[in-house]
Amino acid sequence: xxxxxxxxxxxxxxxxxxxxxxxxxxxxxxxxxxxxxxxxxxxxxxxxxxxxxxxxxxxxxxxxxxxxxxxxxxxxxxxxxxxxxxxxxxxxxxxxxxxxxxxxxxxxxxxxxxxxxxxxxxxxxxxxxxxxxxxxxxxxxxxxxxxxxxxxxxxxxxxxxxxxxxxxxxxxxxxxxxxxxxxxxxxxxxxxxxxxxxxxxxxxxxxxxxxxxxxxxxxxxxxxxxxxxxxxxxxxxxxxxxxxxxxxxxxxxxxxxxxxxxxxxxxxxxxxxxxxxxxxxxxxxxxxxxxxxxxxxxxxxxxxxxxxxxxxxxxxxxxxxxxxxxxxxxxxxxxxxxxxxxxxxxxxxxxxxxxxxxxxxxxxxxxxxxxxxxxxxxxxxxxxxxxxxxxxxxxxxxxxxxxxxxxxxxxxxxxxxxxxxxxxxxxxxxxxxxxxxxxxxxxxxxxxxxxxxxxxxxxxxxxxxxxxxxxxxxxxxxxxxxxxxxxxxxxxxxxxxxxxxxxxxxxxxxxxxxxxxxxxxxxxxxxxxxxxxxxxxxxxxxxxxxxxxxxxxxxxxxxxxxxxxxxxxxxxxxxxxxxxxxxxxxxxxxxxxxxxxxxxxxxxxxxxxxx
Length: 611
Description:
It is an enzyme of class 4 (lyase). The chain is of the alpha/beta class. Strands 1, 2, 3, 4, 6, 7, 12 and 13 form an eight-stranded mixed β-sheet that branches. Strands 18, 19, 20, 21, 22, 23, 24 and 25 form an eight-stranded mixed β-sheet that branches. Strand 14 (283-284) and strand 15 form a beta hairpin. It is rod-shaped and about 135 Å long.
């Protein structure tokens, strides 16, 4: 009983241990990077799929400094090679103002004055100064370089001190120094990537020593009257199709023509001027592409802010609940003995539902990342599945070890499927048919032959007879010297166990005849068979157990075998004859007194049906 309680404790402990270990791994801070990567990978795939149904709005238009514009013959004649004189950008600004654009954002750096064409920089500055629409210029927070004191920067940059701003805070900035400071209506254009080198969020502002540095997108959106959340960044809600792109050279050359009509593509739109030419290198890895152009990222952020459809993260509590459900649910399923295929099907269903829910939430601009929770759940599935496999393997080995000495291997495989080892250990009373077979005159035989010959003879004989027992589904109980004890009806239930026992006895008799022809001396056996109730199970000490049958039925079977001498090679009791029905012919040999019985026993000789 104590061993059973210990085994139960170990089994139940494993169901708790695996979930606790997995949830601890999930909460272990050094592993957060791994779980974040899993969430990001799954989230990126869902975003890319969902984006296929999202069309970019027409509020934002991109003017591309593309390869076609760089190589266009007229642009080469008028502006030369890149970088173009800034007068070109000034003329474009003036044209966009005539087209009644809402605002112009340059995603092009103007950090150094053009010392060879100062009049060109002046013309660009004049165009911005006289523009009736706002023109935003970029600055970059550099990784190194000469640091600027933030308090000394012109207020028009929008870099504002907070209540606890450090008066001497400094940062290396690449500002639009090609233009006068009073025109520095700027915004940061840094685009940060996550740990996996992929960008998913856009900064609206950055806090540094109490100072707030605005992003050009956040500042533009705020000054154009959009609702901008007071949070450092927003997860971007992407579009599969690109925004309206107009090659730079197309608009610039049109601005030099006499056409004064308003282009409906530009009127009332936010214009982003940026480079998409491969050689200019303004590309970033995002969930949509490994080389997403910078202007496309800015356009996505502006469109998200204007239409209030940037992504709002769903609380992590839902992922925690999902992980807990899957991990402990899997443990409970295995602990209660549910079939692994059912547990697997439930895990698949939960996974599908979670992924579908995450996808549908994107329609509401909500981003749920359940993928690390699902990964933990599937780790639980693998862990419990492996543990269940090892337990099953151990159980099968235990059953094989228990019954392998007594049964045909095919019967042992049936027992492992039926999980009969535990039941066999307890033992129970059941209806069986017992068979005893003994060699007659064995003592004389052993006195006239060498021991080696006797052992070889017995082994050959036992091989033949045990094979006959196994072929008919019998259980080999034991060898008692030169005798064999076997029974039918346990541990595998067999409705016609009496028939099987008699069939086996007849085959044993046939095989004896063939065996005797090989010998140079007489060799005879007796077989006694009886059907009745017996206690069957593992009996013995802990270190030496035998699967055996005990009771009056066993004793009577042995007594019947003792009566075969001089009467018949095989004798069966009346209960066995009745259990066999009409399957055999039986010759009645009369009533016999047996030890331990007050009433005589009727004995019959079985023979196969002749017709």
